[in-house]
């Protein structure tokens, strides 16, 4: 029978006992007595529910009608949802209403209602099967799940939780909400009836142990959300218990005359009922935790593990008194080592919610001590999202307790402000701001807040920032440091008043002055903050490009630009005046005007400050000859001379006066130098060089054509060539200035002849300079020659510009040879030769990198001439032959050149490749003589280079057919070109080259192999065919490579030698499908080999299709197959699969350190962590022993009997 106990509880807030009442009912089912005494109630055979006194509301399921077997159906209207799954999927009804309708149906017929709920979970898993009422009543859960597994459609592999799209994303949300609302609405009665919850938990436990991923995933998500809802119920019960206890104590402490006995009894009864309810909730949570969580948190699927970790974080946050202890934190700690970034990310986010509450820090102290090192190391995680969250977690730990992190821990995070990945750098910037720039003394802050400038609160912080920047020893990355701190420390970084005062004002008594290095660092940081504020986007190399600013960001950018303009229009001339003699500081300060709002000069009537700035720039130009400073001055003039601003005329006049003065000085100096000739002293040379460097810097950004600088520069170059005594710096600057003069000339049709004459004369000078004794002069001349040949090449006339034909220059053979010789002499040199040519420079790493960068530029300039057909392609042979030897230095450039030349002309490119191999072979013969040691490293090197060249032809042999055939023809011609002087019975001199040619045999089509073999036989005599001595082995090997893959070759695309990788793949594939077209064979008449330059593809050929031969593996075999850990991708399912596809219950969790730097070992945690598996809510008075859930409601595998844990040893 069923006994219903109804209790009326008065509002705990009303001490007088009057007010609203809450009805709590607890339905207790008695066990039926059998012949053997009290037996366990069997699931599926519940007692009859009491008859309803009135007709219940129809649920959405009832509205659609119901078949006799319990299956829901559509009501015939075509479109109304008729199952819980459809209602939740559509999401058109409020979830509260959906749950209320289900509760009404449960009160009418709980078996049918539970059947709807069971089918809901089955259908949410993507299963097409349906549980019928007879199955529900007569079959155990394991049998039902097995039946549903058989009906599962596994063809697609998709199920609602994994299908992409907004509809299914909404479904997931509705699914979780339905479970939470269901428990919330049932928390006062139904969940305690020992039927509904037992059935649901039993079903979810069985599904979570299924082999089917969809069942496991869906049931785990449902169980975890169910657990979260139960945690909320338990929390409410705990609060009600505390309130009831306080009311009881207050009533009992009253004097005897005023004490209400009835109220005390009522409160005791209420407390007892709440205690019983809490015990029931504990049992439910223990079943879910032990039966589902402890298995699925280490599931093979990362998404399932992530769900478990995410929800345990919610439990610890919601009910910290019960869950925030080491027994549960250890699962999060262990999972920090998960192979999948998604799971590690959930761990970190779960911990962040805990560390945000500083009141929880005492409970997290042990966890912090044990896992702090792992969390700090995760700031270097290979997944950037994980690294960002790890840094944020470390920041929260720092915020809660500064003593928790050591100096070494902090330094590991500091350097990440220079990371190229912006989110990582910004997170590190927040950590740095919290550690170094947060003011912790409120009184001192309030006292300093009234001060301005260098004495303001930011004064010391800016000094600290400068010191951090200098100690980091990454001075060239100031822009990265500023960008990292921009989001967290804008107030500090935009305090330009303070920075200006620190630079301009003298320190007060007792204050330490900034040193020279500190001033340089502060200026560099200040310029970076100005750039960041004005441009409002990250520096180059950090971010994917300029993004569109929002209206708010645009307004902030405009305000910042106006603010910095107002500050530095006045301060910049003073800063330039103070640091006028320091080239580094001046070069940085001169970058500031490009970020000005130049309209302020005219609108704010600040022309006097403009004049002061122009005066200081003029003084800087007169005082400095450093290229960096002069280019900064030139760029500043260029910005100030923009035609859109009204100040343009004023600046143009100042610029013209400066150029006039420099030009006059240069002209007089040149005249003096030319007149004195060899007798010129150092002052004359310095005067010419100084003015020429300044003019060259300005000519780069300004059109100085009207000053005709080319004339004097050309005179200097001619004199240097004729006398051979021109200082190298003057020659370099004269070449560069002349080059700018040519580039600034307008292509007027009437002046084309004159311009051609100028260009021709300058090209001749540059060609003569290639033989100069000074390396810088030769390098400058080479670069300018390559640039001008590119500009004035045949491509100049494309696009309806035929009128420019007179300006086209094609380099003759002599010039091409000189350019190639220069590349061979100055690019392909050994490191030792380079160090010797540095002429006393320090052989440090920076110099080596700079020299390598210069050589790469030289090679790239010449390679462009080859790619654009300005220099004949055979010249590339001397470049290609160095591919292997200089692969680390120039491999990318040579490979790109090879790729581009093949796109231009495949056949000519193939001829060039074989020519490069022939050159290497000839060099080897010259060094070692005709009798080569075929086992030597030099011969192996040539063969390896040939193999690399063969790989560049790719897999599509139809496209490269003619090119490969031509290559073989040229190779055979070369091998038999020179007969042996000793006689016909000896092998030809170059016969060993055929061994190199073997590397390309795999790239020949089958019928082409026959043709090449026929061509080879024309050079062979009967005597050669019979020889088997070692000297004839190259010929034998080459013949065999052409004869392999005869009739049994079915896939001509992958035809190759018997030792090739392609033939191995082919042999595994077996016969191709019959419907595929095979390449037709051709007669081996060898007619195509008679052509000298190019080849015609014989016949129209279609590219054979390649099909996948991967077979679907039997699921049973797949489950039994245990791959090696090294052969599987980290984090993939095979890493977690044991014999039955999931981890065994007694297995340790499989985790792997995924750090970029090194793998770490977890320490043993047995000392600190006790493996407690039973959820024990905070104790309350008069607690009775918890009753265990009746095991007949659960499968035998659902509950873990071992209270000590689940067989998993701790690390």
Automatic annotation (TrEMBL):
The Polar residues compositionally biased stretches are 1052-1065, 1093-1111
Coiled-coil ranges per the record? 257-287
InterPro entries the UniProt entry points to: ARM-type_fold, Cohesin_Scc3/SA, HEAT_SCC3-SA, SCD, STAG
Bias kind Basic and acidic residues: ranges: 1113-1124
GO CC annotations on file: chromatin; chromosome, centromeric region; cohesin complex; nucleus
For this entry, list what GO says about its biological process. Answer: cell division; chromosome segregation; sister chromatid cohesion
Query: Superkingdom, according to UniProt?
Result: Eukaryota
In the UniProt record, does the keyword Nucleus occur? Answer: yes
Q: Entry's SUPFAM superfamilies?
A: ARM repeat (SSF48371)
- Location of this chain's protein in the cell: Nucleus; Chromosome; Chromosome, Centromere
Composition bias of kind Basic residues appears in 1066-1077
Alphabetically list the UniProt keywords: Cell cycle, Cell division, Chromosome, Chromosome partition, Coiled coil, Nucleus
Q: Quick one: where's region Disordered?
A: 13-81, 1046-1137
An example Gene Ontology molecular-function term: chromatin binding
Q: Quick check: keyword Ion transport in the entry?
A: no
Please state every residue range assigned to the domain named SCD. 293-378
Say which family it is in.
Belongs to the SCC3 family.
Function, in words: Component of cohesin complex, a complex required for the cohesion of sister chromatids after DNA replication. The cohesin complex apparently forms a large proteinaceous ring within which sister chromatids can be trapped. At anaphase, the complex is cleaved and dissociates from chromatin, allowing sister chromatids to segregate.
Oligomeric and partner information? Part of the cohesin complex which is composed of a heterodimer between a SMC1 protein (SMC1A or SMC1B) and SMC3, which are attached via their hinge domain, and RAD21 which link them at their heads, and one STAG protein.
What this protein is called in its record is Cohesin subunit SA
């Amino acid at each position: 029978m069923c006994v219903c106990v109804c209790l009326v509880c008065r509002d705990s807030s009303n001490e007088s006992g009057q007010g609203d009442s809450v009805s709590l009912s607890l339905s207790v089912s008695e066990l039926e007595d059998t012949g053997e005494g009290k037996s366990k109630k069997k699931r599926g055979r519940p007692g009859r529910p009491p008859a309803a006194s009135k007709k219940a509301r129809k649920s959405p399921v009832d509205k659609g009608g119901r078949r006799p077997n319990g299956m829901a159906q559509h009501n015939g209207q075509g479109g109304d949802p008729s199952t819980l799954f459809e209602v939740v999927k559509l999401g058109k009804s409020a979830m509260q209403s959906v749950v209320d309708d289900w509760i009404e149906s449960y009160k009418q017929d709980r078996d049918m209602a539970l059947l709807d709920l069971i089918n809901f979970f089955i259908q949410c898993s993507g299963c097409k099967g349906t549980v019928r009422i007879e199955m529900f009543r007569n079959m155990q859960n394991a049998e039902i799940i097995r039946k549903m597994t058989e009906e599962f459609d596994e063809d697609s592999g998709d199920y609602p939780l994994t299908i992409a799209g907004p509809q299914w994303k909404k479904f997931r949300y509705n699914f979780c909400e339905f479970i939470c609302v269901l428990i919330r609405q049932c928390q006062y009665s139904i969940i305690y009836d020992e039927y509904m919850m037992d059935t649901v938990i039993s079903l979810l436990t069985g599904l979570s142990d299924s082999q089917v991923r969809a069942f496991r995933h869906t049931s785990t998500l449902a169980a975890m959300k169910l657990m979260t809802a139960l945690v909320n119920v338990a929390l409410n019960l705990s609060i009600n218990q505390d309130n009831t206890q306080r009311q009881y104590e207050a009533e009992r402490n009253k004097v005897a005359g005023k004490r209400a006995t009835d109220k005390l009894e009522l409160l005791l009864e209420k407390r007892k009922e709440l205690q019983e309810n809490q015990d029931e909730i504990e049992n439910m949570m223990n079943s879910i935790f032990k039966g589902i969580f402890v298995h699925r948190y280490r599931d093979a699927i990362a998404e399932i593990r992530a769900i478990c970790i995410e929800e345990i974080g919610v439990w610890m946050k919601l009910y910290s008194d019960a869950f925030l202890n080491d027994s549960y934190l250890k699962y999060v700690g262990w999972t920090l080592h998960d192979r999948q970034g998604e799971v590690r990310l959930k761990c970190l986010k779960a911990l962040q919610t805990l560390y945000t509450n500083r009141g929880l820090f005492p409970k997290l102290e042990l966890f912090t001590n044990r896992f702090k090192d792992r969390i700090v190391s995760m700031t270097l995680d290979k997944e950037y999202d994980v690294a960002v969250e790890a840094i944020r977690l470390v920041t929260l730990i720092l915020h809660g307790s500064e003593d928790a992190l050591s100096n070494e821990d902090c330094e590991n995070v500091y350097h990440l402000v220079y990371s190229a990945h912006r989110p990582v750098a910004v997170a590190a910037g927040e950590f740095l701001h919290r550690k170094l720039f947060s003011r912790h003394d409120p009184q001192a802050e309030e006292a300093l807040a009234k001060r301005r400038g260098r004495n303001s609160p930011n004064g010391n912080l800016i000094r600290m920032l400068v010191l951090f920047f200098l100690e980091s020893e990454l001075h060239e990355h100031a822009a990265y440091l500023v960008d990292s701190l921009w989001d967290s420390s804008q107030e500090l970084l935009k305090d330009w008043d303070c920075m200006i005062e620190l630079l301009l004002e003298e320190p007060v008594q007792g204050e330490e002055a900034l040193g020279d290095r500190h001033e340089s660092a502060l200026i560099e940081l200040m310029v970076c903050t100005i750039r960041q504020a004005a441009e409002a986007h990250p520096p180059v190399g950090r971010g994917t490009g300029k993004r569109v600013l929002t209206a708010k960001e645009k307004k902030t950018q405009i305000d910042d630009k106006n603010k910095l303009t107002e500050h530095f229009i006045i301060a910049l001339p003073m800063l330039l005046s103070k640091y006028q003699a320091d080239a580094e500081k001046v070069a940085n300060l001169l970058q500031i005007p490009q970020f000005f709002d130049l309209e302020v000069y005219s609108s704010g009537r600040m022309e006097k400050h403009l004049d002061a700035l122009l005066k200081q720039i003029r003084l800087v130009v007169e005082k400095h000859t450093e290229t960096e400073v002069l280019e900064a001055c030139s760029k500043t003039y260029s910005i100030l001379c923009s035609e859109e601003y009204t100040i343009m005329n004023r600046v143009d006049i100042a610029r013209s006066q400066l150029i006039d003065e420099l030009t006059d000085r240069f002209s007089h100096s040149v005249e003096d130098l030319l007149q004195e000739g060899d007798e010129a002293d150092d002052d004359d040379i310095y005067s010419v060089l100084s003015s020429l460097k300044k003019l060259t810097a300005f000519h780069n950004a300004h059109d100085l054509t009207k000053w005709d600088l080319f004339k004097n520069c050309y005179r200097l170059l001619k004199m240097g060539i004729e006398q051979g005594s021109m200082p190298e710096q003057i020659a370099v600057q004269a070449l560069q200035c002349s080059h700018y003069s040519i580039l600034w000339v307008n292509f007027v049709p009437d002046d084309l002849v004159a311009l051609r004459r100028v260009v021709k004369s300058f090209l001749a000078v540059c060609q003569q300079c290639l033989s100069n004794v000074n390396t810088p002069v030769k390098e400058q001349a080479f670069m300018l020659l390559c640039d001008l040949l590119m500009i004035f090449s045949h491509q100049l006339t494309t696009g309806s510009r035929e009128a420019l034909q007179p300006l086209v220059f094609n380099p003759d053979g002599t010039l091409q040879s000189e350019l190639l010789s220069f590349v061979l002499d100055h690019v392909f040199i050994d490191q030792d030769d380079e160090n010797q040519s540095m002429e006393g420079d320090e052989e440090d790493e920076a110099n080596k990198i700079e020299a390598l960068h210069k050589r790469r530029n030289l090679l790239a300039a010449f390679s462009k001439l080859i790619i654009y057909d300005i220099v004949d392609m055979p010249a590339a042979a001397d470049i290609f032959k160095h591919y292997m030897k200089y692969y680390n230095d120039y491999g990318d450039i040579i490979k790109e050149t090879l790729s581009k030349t093949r796109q231009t002309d495949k056949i000519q490119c193939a001829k060039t490749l074989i020519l490069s191999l022939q050159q290497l072979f000839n060099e080897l013969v010259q060094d070692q003589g005709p009798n080569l040691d075929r086992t030597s490293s030099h011969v192996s090197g040539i063969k390896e280079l040939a193999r690399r060249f063969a790989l560049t032809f790719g897999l599509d042999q139809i496209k490269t057919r003619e090119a490969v055939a031509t290559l073989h023809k040229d190779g055979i011609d070369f091998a038999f070109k020179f007969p042996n002087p000793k006689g016909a019975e000896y092998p030809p001199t170059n016969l060993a080259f055929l061994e190199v040619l073997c590397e390309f045999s795999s790239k020949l089509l089958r019928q082409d192999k026959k043709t090449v073999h026929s061509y080879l036989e024309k050079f062979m005599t009967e005597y050669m065919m019979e020889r088997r001595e070692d000297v004839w082995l190259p010929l034998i090997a080459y013949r065999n490579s052409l004869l392999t893959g005869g009739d049994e070759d079915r896939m001509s695309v992958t035809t190759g030698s018997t030792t090739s990788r392609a033939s191995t793949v082919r042999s595994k594939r077996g016969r191709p499908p019959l419907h595929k077209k095979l390449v037709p064979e051709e007669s081996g008449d060898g007619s195509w080999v008679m052509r000298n330059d190019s080849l015609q593809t014989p016949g129209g050929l279609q590219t054979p299709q390649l099909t996948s031969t991967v077979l679907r593996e039997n699921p049973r075999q797949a489950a039994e197959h245990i791959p090696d850990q090294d052969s599987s991708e980290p984090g993939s399912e095979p890493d977690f699969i044991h014999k039955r596809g999931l981890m065994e219950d007694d297995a340790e969790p499989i985790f792997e350190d995924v750090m970029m730097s090194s793998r770490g070992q977890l320490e043993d945690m047995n000392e600190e962590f006790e493996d407690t598996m039973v959820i024990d809510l905070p104790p309350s008075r008069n607690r009775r022993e918890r009753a265990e859930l009746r095991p007949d409601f659960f499968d035998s595998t659902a509950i873990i009997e071992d209270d000590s844990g689940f067989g998993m040893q701790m690390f």
